[in-house]
Amino acid sequence: MDTKTTSTVVPTAVGPIKIRRIGEGPPVFLWHSMFVDSETFDLVTQELGDGRELFLVDGPGHGDSPGPRRLYSLQDCATAAAQVMDALQVAAPVDWVGNAWGGHVGLLLADSFPARIRTLVAIGTPAYPLQGADRRKTALLVPLYRILGPRPLSKVVVDALVGQGSAGNAPSAASVVAAAFQRGDRRGKYWAMRSLMLRRPDLRPLLPRLQVPTLLMAGRDDAMNDAGEAERAARSLPDGRFVPVTGGGHVAPLLVAPAEVTRNILDFWAAQGDR
Fold it and tell me: I need a surface site. Which of 139, 147, 181, 201 has the fewest CB within 10 A?
Protein backbone atom coordinates (compact mmCIF):
# COMPACT_ATOMS: atom_id res chain seq x y z
CA MET A 1 0.00 0.00 0.00
CA ASP A 2 1.18 3.54 -0.82
CA THR A 3 1.27 5.17 2.62
CA LYS A 4 1.66 8.75 1.40
CA THR A 5 -0.98 10.80 3.21
CA THR A 6 -2.35 14.22 2.34
CA SER A 7 -5.07 16.19 4.08
CA THR A 8 -7.58 18.69 2.79
CA VAL A 9 -10.58 20.58 4.12
CA VAL A 10 -13.73 20.88 2.01
CA PRO A 11 -16.58 23.36 2.67
CA THR A 12 -19.93 21.55 2.81
CA ALA A 13 -23.53 21.96 3.94
CA VAL A 14 -22.49 20.81 7.43
CA GLY A 15 -19.39 22.97 7.68
CA PRO A 16 -15.75 22.32 6.73
CA ILE A 17 -14.99 18.59 6.45
CA LYS A 18 -11.45 17.28 6.95
CA ILE A 19 -10.38 14.47 4.62
CA ARG A 20 -7.24 12.33 4.83
CA ARG A 21 -6.21 10.79 1.50
CA ILE A 22 -3.98 7.72 1.39
CA GLY A 23 -2.70 5.81 -1.63
CA GLU A 24 -3.73 5.67 -5.27
CA GLY A 25 -6.34 3.75 -7.22
CA PRO A 26 -10.12 3.28 -7.20
CA PRO A 27 -11.71 5.47 -4.51
CA VAL A 28 -12.87 4.21 -1.11
CA PHE A 29 -14.64 6.55 1.30
CA LEU A 30 -14.64 5.74 5.03
CA TRP A 31 -16.93 7.57 7.51
CA HIS A 32 -16.68 6.73 11.21
CA SER A 33 -19.10 6.27 14.11
CA MET A 34 -20.53 9.00 16.30
CA PHE A 35 -18.24 10.04 19.24
CA VAL A 36 -14.97 9.02 17.53
CA ASP A 37 -13.17 10.01 14.30
CA SER A 38 -11.42 8.62 11.25
CA GLU A 39 -8.52 7.23 13.30
CA THR A 40 -10.73 4.32 14.34
CA PHE A 41 -10.15 2.94 10.81
CA ASP A 42 -6.37 2.90 11.19
CA LEU A 43 -6.15 -0.87 11.79
CA VAL A 44 -7.93 -1.68 8.51
CA THR A 45 -6.42 0.91 6.17
CA GLN A 46 -3.31 -1.12 5.30
CA GLU A 47 -5.22 -3.96 3.66
CA LEU A 48 -8.19 -1.98 2.38
CA GLY A 49 -5.84 0.53 0.78
CA ASP A 50 -3.90 -2.04 -1.25
CA GLY A 51 -4.24 -0.67 -4.79
CA ARG A 52 -6.91 1.87 -3.80
CA GLU A 53 -7.13 5.49 -2.70
CA LEU A 54 -8.70 5.89 0.73
CA PHE A 55 -10.62 9.03 1.66
CA LEU A 56 -10.96 9.07 5.46
CA VAL A 57 -13.66 11.51 6.56
CA ASP A 58 -13.87 13.32 9.90
CA GLY A 59 -17.62 13.87 10.25
CA PRO A 60 -18.94 17.26 11.45
CA GLY A 61 -18.07 18.00 15.07
CA HIS A 62 -15.53 15.17 15.15
CA GLY A 63 -11.77 15.03 14.64
CA ASP A 64 -10.69 18.14 12.76
CA SER A 65 -14.14 19.01 11.36
CA PRO A 66 -15.77 21.66 13.59
CA GLY A 67 -19.39 21.09 12.55
CA PRO A 68 -22.25 23.60 12.48
CA ARG A 69 -23.83 25.19 15.58
CA ARG A 70 -27.37 24.19 14.61
CA LEU A 71 -29.56 21.19 14.02
CA TYR A 72 -28.94 19.21 10.85
CA SER A 73 -29.84 15.77 9.54
CA LEU A 74 -28.32 12.56 8.28
CA GLN A 75 -29.55 13.57 4.84
CA ASP A 76 -27.49 16.77 5.18
CA CYS A 77 -24.47 14.57 5.90
CA ALA A 78 -25.13 12.51 2.76
CA THR A 79 -25.35 15.73 0.74
CA ALA A 80 -22.05 16.85 2.29
CA ALA A 81 -20.43 13.57 1.23
CA ALA A 82 -21.50 14.20 -2.36
CA GLN A 83 -20.15 17.76 -2.09
CA VAL A 84 -16.78 16.38 -0.94
CA MET A 85 -16.67 14.07 -3.96
CA ASP A 86 -17.42 17.00 -6.26
CA ALA A 87 -14.79 19.22 -4.65
CA LEU A 88 -12.13 16.50 -4.85
CA GLN A 89 -13.16 15.59 -8.42
CA VAL A 90 -13.96 11.98 -7.53
CA ALA A 91 -15.98 11.03 -10.60
CA ALA A 92 -15.81 7.24 -10.36
CA PRO A 93 -18.38 5.44 -8.17
CA VAL A 94 -16.84 4.81 -4.75
CA ASP A 95 -16.71 1.86 -2.40
CA TRP A 96 -18.29 3.26 0.77
CA VAL A 97 -17.32 1.89 4.19
CA GLY A 98 -19.35 3.36 7.05
CA ASN A 99 -19.21 2.57 10.74
CA ALA A 100 -22.51 3.20 12.59
CA TRP A 101 -23.14 6.89 11.72
CA GLY A 102 -21.07 6.43 8.56
CA GLY A 103 -23.27 3.50 7.56
CA HIS A 104 -26.39 5.66 7.95
CA VAL A 105 -24.79 8.31 5.74
CA GLY A 106 -23.90 5.64 3.18
CA LEU A 107 -27.46 4.29 3.05
CA LEU A 108 -28.87 7.75 2.41
CA LEU A 109 -26.13 8.54 -0.11
CA ALA A 110 -26.92 5.33 -1.99
CA ASP A 111 -30.60 6.28 -2.01
CA SER A 112 -30.15 9.93 -3.05
CA PHE A 113 -27.05 9.64 -5.25
CA PRO A 114 -26.92 5.99 -6.43
CA ALA A 115 -24.49 6.75 -9.26
CA ARG A 116 -21.93 7.80 -6.64
CA ILE A 117 -21.71 4.37 -4.99
CA ARG A 118 -20.25 1.15 -6.41
CA THR A 119 -20.62 -0.85 -3.19
CA LEU A 120 -21.76 -0.09 0.35
CA VAL A 121 -20.44 -1.62 3.58
CA ALA A 122 -22.12 -0.66 6.86
CA ILE A 123 -20.58 -1.87 10.13
CA GLY A 124 -22.60 -1.62 13.34
CA THR A 125 -25.36 0.41 11.68
CA PRO A 126 -28.89 -0.15 13.04
CA ALA A 127 -31.48 0.73 10.39
CA TYR A 128 -34.09 1.37 13.09
CA PRO A 129 -34.35 4.47 15.34
CA LEU A 130 -33.17 4.55 18.94
CA GLN A 131 -35.66 2.75 21.12
CA GLY A 132 -36.56 2.20 24.76
CA ALA A 133 -33.73 2.27 27.29
CA ASP A 134 -31.14 3.23 24.68
CA ARG A 135 -33.15 6.32 23.76
CA ARG A 136 -33.58 7.31 27.42
CA LYS A 137 -29.84 6.93 28.08
CA THR A 138 -29.00 9.02 25.03
CA ALA A 139 -31.51 11.70 25.99
CA LEU A 140 -29.65 12.02 29.31
CA LEU A 141 -26.18 11.82 27.78
CA VAL A 142 -26.62 14.81 25.44
CA PRO A 143 -27.27 17.50 28.10
CA LEU A 144 -24.67 15.95 30.42
CA TYR A 145 -22.09 16.24 27.65
CA ARG A 146 -22.99 19.89 27.14
CA ILE A 147 -22.51 20.60 30.86
CA LEU A 148 -19.62 18.30 31.78
CA GLY A 149 -17.73 17.76 28.55
CA PRO A 150 -16.31 14.42 27.41
CA ARG A 151 -13.96 13.30 30.17
CA PRO A 152 -16.51 12.31 32.87
CA LEU A 153 -18.57 10.46 30.25
CA SER A 154 -15.74 8.53 28.59
CA LYS A 155 -16.46 5.22 30.34
CA VAL A 156 -20.12 5.33 29.30
CA VAL A 157 -19.16 5.91 25.67
CA VAL A 158 -16.40 3.29 25.69
CA ASP A 159 -18.76 0.68 27.13
CA ALA A 160 -21.35 1.53 24.47
CA LEU A 161 -18.96 1.48 21.49
CA VAL A 162 -16.54 -1.29 22.50
CA GLY A 163 -18.58 -3.33 25.00
CA GLN A 164 -19.13 -3.62 28.73
CA GLY A 165 -15.87 -4.17 30.62
CA SER A 166 -13.75 -3.31 27.59
CA ALA A 167 -11.34 -1.22 29.69
CA GLY A 168 -10.21 -4.52 31.23
CA ASN A 169 -10.59 -7.05 28.40
CA ALA A 170 -9.83 -4.79 25.41
CA PRO A 171 -7.75 -1.93 26.87
CA SER A 172 -6.19 -0.86 23.56
CA ALA A 173 -9.59 -0.53 21.88
CA ALA A 174 -11.01 1.27 24.90
CA SER A 175 -8.09 3.71 24.84
CA VAL A 176 -8.58 4.50 21.14
CA VAL A 177 -12.28 5.27 21.66
CA ALA A 178 -11.73 7.32 24.83
CA ALA A 179 -9.04 9.43 23.15
CA ALA A 180 -11.17 10.01 20.05
CA PHE A 181 -14.20 10.96 22.15
CA GLN A 182 -12.15 13.60 23.96
CA ARG A 183 -10.80 15.05 20.69
CA GLY A 184 -12.69 17.29 18.35
CA ASP A 185 -14.75 20.41 18.76
CA ARG A 186 -16.85 20.18 21.93
CA ARG A 187 -19.68 22.41 20.72
CA GLY A 188 -19.67 20.78 17.31
CA LYS A 189 -19.90 17.32 18.83
CA TYR A 190 -22.77 18.42 21.07
CA TRP A 191 -24.74 19.61 18.02
CA ALA A 192 -23.93 16.37 16.19
CA MET A 193 -25.22 14.33 19.14
CA ARG A 194 -28.34 16.45 19.43
CA SER A 195 -28.99 16.44 15.68
CA LEU A 196 -28.25 12.87 14.71
CA MET A 197 -28.78 10.46 17.59
CA LEU A 198 -32.15 11.38 19.03
CA ARG A 199 -33.43 12.35 15.56
CA ARG A 200 -32.14 9.26 13.77
CA PRO A 201 -34.85 8.24 11.29
CA ASP A 202 -36.17 4.79 10.56
CA LEU A 203 -34.19 3.82 7.46
CA ARG A 204 -35.85 0.44 6.93
CA PRO A 205 -38.40 1.78 4.40
CA LEU A 206 -35.67 2.90 2.00
CA LEU A 207 -33.79 -0.44 1.99
CA PRO A 208 -35.97 -2.25 -0.59
CA ARG A 209 -35.32 0.45 -3.19
CA LEU A 210 -31.52 0.57 -2.89
CA GLN A 211 -29.82 -0.79 -6.01
CA VAL A 212 -26.28 -0.76 -4.60
CA PRO A 213 -24.63 -4.06 -3.57
CA THR A 214 -24.60 -3.81 0.23
CA LEU A 215 -22.85 -5.70 3.04
CA LEU A 216 -24.14 -5.23 6.58
CA MET A 217 -21.91 -6.33 9.46
CA ALA A 218 -22.91 -6.35 13.13
CA GLY A 219 -20.94 -7.28 16.21
CA ARG A 220 -22.19 -10.56 17.66
CA ASP A 221 -22.37 -8.99 21.12
CA ASP A 222 -23.46 -5.47 20.20
CA ALA A 223 -26.36 -4.76 22.57
CA MET A 224 -27.39 -1.65 20.62
CA ASN A 225 -27.55 -3.31 17.18
CA ASP A 226 -29.73 -6.39 17.19
CA ALA A 227 -28.07 -8.96 14.89
CA GLY A 228 -31.42 -10.51 13.96
CA GLU A 229 -32.76 -7.13 12.91
CA ALA A 230 -29.57 -6.48 10.90
CA GLU A 231 -30.02 -9.80 9.09
CA ARG A 232 -33.65 -8.95 8.30
CA ALA A 233 -32.50 -5.55 7.00
CA ALA A 234 -30.00 -7.27 4.68
CA ARG A 235 -32.72 -9.59 3.35
CA SER A 236 -34.90 -6.58 2.52
CA LEU A 237 -32.21 -5.15 0.25
CA PRO A 238 -32.35 -6.09 -3.45
CA ASP A 239 -28.64 -6.98 -3.32
CA GLY A 240 -27.79 -7.31 0.35
CA ARG A 241 -25.93 -9.69 2.60
CA PHE A 242 -25.30 -9.92 6.32
CA VAL A 243 -22.21 -11.10 8.20
CA PRO A 244 -21.90 -11.25 12.00
CA VAL A 245 -18.44 -10.30 13.27
CA THR A 246 -16.60 -10.22 16.56
CA GLY A 247 -17.37 -7.25 18.80
CA GLY A 248 -19.46 -5.93 21.67
CA GLY A 249 -20.27 -2.44 20.36
CA HIS A 250 -20.67 -0.44 17.15
CA VAL A 251 -16.94 0.37 16.85
CA ALA A 252 -15.55 -2.80 18.44
CA PRO A 253 -15.15 -4.88 15.25
CA LEU A 254 -12.73 -2.34 13.75
CA LEU A 255 -10.57 -2.39 16.88
CA VAL A 256 -10.74 -5.94 18.23
CA ALA A 257 -11.19 -7.90 14.97
CA PRO A 258 -9.70 -5.79 12.15
CA ALA A 259 -8.47 -8.82 10.18
CA GLU A 260 -11.97 -10.35 10.26
CA VAL A 261 -13.52 -7.08 9.10
CA THR A 262 -11.04 -6.54 6.26
CA ARG A 263 -11.37 -10.14 5.06
CA ASN A 264 -15.14 -9.78 4.79
CA ILE A 265 -14.88 -6.43 2.98
CA LEU A 266 -12.25 -7.64 0.53
CA ASP A 267 -14.23 -10.81 -0.22
CA PHE A 268 -17.32 -8.66 -0.81
CA TRP A 269 -15.46 -6.31 -3.14
CA ALA A 270 -13.93 -9.24 -5.01
CA ALA A 271 -17.38 -10.80 -5.49
CA GLN A 272 -18.63 -7.59 -7.11
CA GLY A 273 -15.64 -7.56 -9.45
CA ASP A 274 -16.38 -11.14 -10.49
CA ARG A 275 -19.99 -10.39 -11.42
Answer: 147
